[in-house]
Write a structure and sequence with these properties.
Elements lengths: L1 E4 L9 E7 L6 E2 L4 E6 L4 E5 L4 E6 L6 E3 L3 E6 L57 H10 L18 H17 L24 H16 L2 E9 L1 H18 L6 H14 L5 E4 L2 E4 L5 E3 L1 E3 L2 E3 L2 E2 L7 H16 L13 E4 L19 E5 L3 E7 L2 E15 L5 H16 L7
Length: 423
Amino acid sequence: MAEVVMPQMGESIVEGTITKWLKGPGDKVERDEVLFEISTDKVDSEVPSPDSGVLEAIFFPEGETVEINTVVAVIGDGSKLGKHALPTAAPATPAPAEPAPVEPAAPPEEAEPTRAAAPEPAAADSGKRIHSSPLVRRIAKEKGIDLATLGKGTGAGGRLTKKDILAYIESQERAVDSGLPATAFPPAPEARFGDFDVEPLSAMRRSIAEHMVRTKRTSPHVSTVHAVDCTNIAKLRNAAKDKFLEQNGTKLTFLPFFLQAAASALKAYPTVNASLDGKQLIKHNDVNIGIAVALDWGLIVPVIRKADELSLLGIQRAVNDLAARARSKALKPDEISQGTFSVSNYGSYNSLLATPAINQPQVAILGIGAVNKTPVVINDAIAIRSMAYLTLSFDHRVMDGAIADLFLEHIREIVENWSTPVL
């Protein structure tokens, strides 16, 4: 018999929500075959079977949030199908929780039995149960927070997660100081008129919304835009793309040219390759560039680590690999963390210009527009060149326009004078 447990998808992850079972009781499964999908505070992922056999029991339905290391199913030879009792206790103690934004939360005590946990509080005005984990209820008790005031959480079925309550605490503190809205989801009953349908936001969409409101509330965003002549790299790419695909099994796009130039600029201007922690600027020695990947159900930013040490081919392979695994829910939490700078390549959707939002706690993000042939004036004559607009959105608390413009000029100089052969 093999027990299937809720995996720990990163050091700070203490629970996961089962979003979909791909197998049911009585189904045969092979080792490493995907059993179910989970959603955590950081990433969606697929969980493979630890062994071959028959799925004899499932202890938690879709939508249930379960603490890590809790047994969620059992695989056997089929002889005990339907005879397993529900688990009475989590078999291990979860990892310590992340600290709250202002004062550290107490570390979790012994893992509470998921099925035998204390009754969840009911909303005072409706009598409805508030779905949350023991950890969330403990933090709420310590901070004197009525969970009913938080509304629905970002977990499956509206379950309140640790991320929800910590974000709520932070938003309340910031709202006192700034007078800005304390929630990403203020009620808007005036929006309900005429003929309409109601569609709840997905867990990922809610998480993105909270992150976007937080970044706009946190950083004074300023954007600067430079036009870049991409004619040289366009010619090099067109000449090499067929052979590049044949030799490497991957397409050659414009993105790795810009990423390699950005990595060089980040080394030259370390203020841009930084994070703000309170009143201290953390200048990162590693160049870890996050690339925004659009998914059918949202957006995720996997990270290319030490991008400054990679060749053009290495960057292109990393981009393709991370994007493919993001779309197949195969990323790990450490592959979407510890980014020092981010890039949004909206040009792949033919967008010319945008002002992307900073990915906290970073201090800048580069936006890349579409590369199009455009008439431009060169030496008082009209010429057709392959042009693109680059946007740098930056945190004005950390840097001024001069540094931002010098950063983009560094990228422009590299791209416009690119002469290194692709192959």
